[in-house]
Amino acid sequence: MTGFGARLTAAVGARGALCVGIDPHPGLLDAWGLPLGVDGLERFAMTCVEALAGEVAVLKPQSAFFEAHGSRGVAVLERVIAESRAAGALVLVDAKRGDIGSTMAAYAQAYLADGSPLAGDAVTLSPYLGFGSLEPALVTAEATGRGVFVLALTSNPEGAQVQRAEQGGRSVAQAVVDAAAARNAGAEPLGPVGLVVGATLAETGVDLTGLNGAILAPGVGAQGAGPADLSRLFGGAGVVLPTSSRDVLRHGPDTAALREAALRLRDELVA
Ligand SMILES: O=C(O)c1cc(=O)[nH]c(=O)n1[C@@H]1O[C@H](COP(=O)(O)O)[C@@H](O)[C@H]1O
Prior knowledge:
The chain is an alpha/beta fold. Helices cover about 45% and strands about 15% of the residues. The chain has helices spanning about 5-15, 25-30, 40-50, 65, 70-85, 100-110, 135-145, 160-165, 170-185, 225-235, 245-250, 255-270; strands at about 20, 60, 90-95, 120-125, 145-155, 165, 170, 195, 215-220, 240-245.
């Protein structure tokens, strides 16, 4: 079985370092001329899959926008996961789960176990019930060749209140980085535990050099971050995966325009 670190490295090598978020905001459905119900959601999401899944390394459906439509919305998310993977993209399900260990085992089953319809290639996790509470997800990811992206420093300004707090001279974010690094130690070419570090930050204030895992960098485009921020924050760091949602999605519903917007962004970021 090929681990997530190797699969992500291969995907980025073949398709370039870009993740596009599938965030079906009601405002975007409206701008695309779609009805605001589950039919509009499905047409929006499947247009994204058709335009992007054959081209970009990683697609990141934002679970909240699917859950907002109840079980029929979740069924659309399942279809997005299956069809994106079939077209060759890795799927990072953005669900930001985190709970006590015994409940975390059920989330691990949902998002990381073979055969689950909600399992893509990776899932976003919140470590704020303690990094150790994520253990069932880490074990399942390792066993199934999947990955996790753990929130370290989020792109929103409110995150600093918790993430920059210090404990024994070390920030909470640095403790998350260190726990992820310990988990990834020795893995080749990269371990399965990635981190989320916002591209919008003035500075990271953490040492990422020993991570040996991927960094997902949200905030590109709609939240104001651009290529210069990525090199400023992460220059020299290993595999950095910038992610953008609204700034790409606003180019739909035309599939060619949507695809071109994603590829243009990818090329700008590489340059
Ligand atoms: O985990 C994430 O993807 C994430 C972490 C973070 O710190 N900030 C952040 O914006 N995100 C997600 O990334 C997407 C950003 O969307 P845009 O601002 O439209 O590019 C949303 O789905 C957010 O939930």
